[in-house]
């Protein structure tokens, strides 16, 4: 089942232009805590909005095991790598 949800996530980034949200287990805080991230495509690029902190990041590369998010701040690159093993749910966003 884990592989199926990971593949669904990658397929959404590769094949659709529709925005969606994904819920990830946030192990930094607690095993029971989750983090919701909204993904939206603008032109050819995907952007991720971390809802708890309202942080907008660019989606860099994504693999079968992780998604890489980044943002340039004052000439420095902030990178976040999220393991897809922490992916709990995917939901389309109704517009």
Indicate the topology.
Layout: H1 2-15, E1 20-25, E2 34-42, E3 45-50, E4 55-62, E5 66-73, E6 76-83, E7 87-92
Antiparallel strand pairs: 1-2, 1-7, 2-3, 3-4, 4-5, 5-6
Commentary on this structure:
The protein has 95 residues and is mainly beta. It has one domain. The chain is 15% helix and 54% strand. The chain has one helix spanning 2-15, and strands spanning 20-25, 34-42, 45-50, 55-62, 66-73, 76-83, 87-92. Strands 6-5-4-3-2-1-7 form a seven-stranded antiparallel β-sheet, covered by helices on one side. It is globular. The mean pLDDT is 89.
Short description:
By secondary structure, this protein is mostly beta strands.
Structure characteristics:
95 residues; seven-stranded antiparallel β-sheet; mainly beta
Strand content: over 45%
Number of domains: 1
Overall radius of gyration: 13 Å
Number of extended strands: 7
Q: Provide the structure class.
A: mainly beta
Q: Secondary-structure element sequence?
A: HEEEEEEE
Separation, N- and C-terminal Cα atoms: 28 Å
Task: Please give the share of residues in helix.
Answer: 10-25%
For the biggest sheet, the summary is:
7 strands, antiparallel
Low-confidence stretches: none
Strand order of the largest sheet: 6-5-4-3-2-1-7
Overall pLDDT metric:
89
Figure out the total of helices: 1
- What is the global morphology? globular
